[in-house]
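2024-03-11 09:14:02 DEBUG pipeline.ingest accepted 1 chain
2024-03-11 09:14:02 DEBUG pipeline.ingest length=167
2024-03-11 09:14:03 DEBUG pipeline.predict start
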Amino acid sequence: MADRLPPLTRQDAEDFLYREAELLDDARLDDWLALFSDDARYRLPITADDDPLEPALVDDDRGRLAERVFRLTSTQAHAQLPPSRTVHDVHNVRVEELPDGEVLVRCNLTVHEVRVGGPEQVGLGRLRSFPGRAVYVLRPGPPVRIRAKTVHLLERELPLPNIAFIV
């Protein structure tokens, strides 16, 4: 019996991740939020094994993601005045079909961020980079939806600066 082809190819997954990166970099956060399923989870764990009982930098369900997007787009989020400019680099994409028809996508990710401010704003104007690995569970579409996104920052166990933008 021949193996089934994955419902989402590596090229499909890359295109999807590149689109997500573009939406984040263009600050189109409402469109980014629309990529997530209603039962989505978005995590930035601080432990290597991603134990759900351990604290995380971010551990949001779809409702909390919507609150985060609202805060960043519709309020004066102090930590984002001035707002961050980001460039998300996605590379080394691997795709694996899961038994339930969903697709596991792993990739390396580097987010470059800068906040341009005046001389009175100490610490602004410096480029910061946040390398890591991301693991997605995608539901093939149309449209493709993110059911889970977990980003393991390389420096997750070290003191990190305020991360008030979306990784």
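2024-03-11 09:14:41 DEBUG pipeline.report DSSP finds three helices and six strands in the chain.
2024-03-11 09:14:41 DEBUG pipeline.predict end
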